[in-house]
Amino acid sequence: MRHQILIFCILSVSLSINCRWDRLVSRTRIPKESYPETGFLWGFMNQSGEVVIPAKYQEVRDFHEGLAAFRQGYLWGYLNQSGQEVIKPGYLQAHSFSNHLAKVITPDGRSLYIRPSGKSAFDLHCSKAGNFHNNRAPIWIKNKAGYIDSTGRIVIPPRFEDAYEFYLSTAIVQYQGKFGLIDPFGKYILKPEYDLIYFDKKSNDNWCLLEKDGITSYYNLSSNQFLEQKIAEGQPFFNHSAVVRKDSLYGVINSQGDWVLMPIFSNLINLGSHRWALKDEANYFMIDHSGLQYGEGFNQIYRFSEGLATAKIDQKWGFVDTSGEFIISPVYDLVWPFKNGIARVVTEAGVGFIDKEGHDVIPPQYADIRDFQEGLARFSVPASDY
To answer: Which DSSP state fits 101?
Structure first.
């Protein structure tokens, strides 16, 4: 039990470190207090579980475009997949590469974009900058937000109160306290008149959720059309359906606005794969579009990924199929969804990967492992092991 508690403490520390990504930094000194010693070191392994970059770094990020940020002491640099430090540590922050550019913050607090060579891409005269997506990155000048392209040219002049990264050639912006959508040239797709706009980037449905004056609506980013169904309250689309409320009860609509499940339920959660979850006082139950129940009650259950959903029963996690049956027995302290045929799991021995038959791909033995990116996964071990 003591070892189990240690594993969860390790994961909590690791997650809290990752969430510090955009912390404001001093312009006069390196914020050493931002990086307390955790007692763990990070490296990278390949999909066979072989260590290709030894665990010797205080922190590392995933590989993007062949490079990964790493931290030694209080400064960040970049590694290539051979473990060579191609950009020496010299930054307070270092973000992932995108469009062959990465945002960094210098020791004097300036935001820059650098190229894979480590050279500055262009002069950047702004108070803050975001990451590149779709050849656009948000910047802030005198508390106003706009966008630059990958040459550093301002393509959308700063005029917004806030601006977000582009997704499907669309970006959310805020103006006079309201949210709208713009295209890559700054033209409004939807004028800023909404209280909330939300993309679920994991859904692949291309729908965004809008809220205005307490009413939910949906807008398709590919067809540029609204869903005609009028909704009092709704959740984001996932796998071509969305849970919505009518009066005081919940049902499910499809992307044409037709009812898949009539609004007769006190609560619903969209699991994907044409399955939904209902919750009573103690457990979750899986149902299909006809209301037919599958499996026994679960302590918790989350979305399907690659045909399996993570589910918890008797304080242990496993994986169930659409019939509600455990395909991988609930024997784990924690699990993550399947990606590319493997899933991360936690046991008392540590963190590892399993396949869809429940066999160990990388035996649970590490303090932490993250999902594979560009063929490599970052992992951590106690510093005392090295």
So the answer is: B
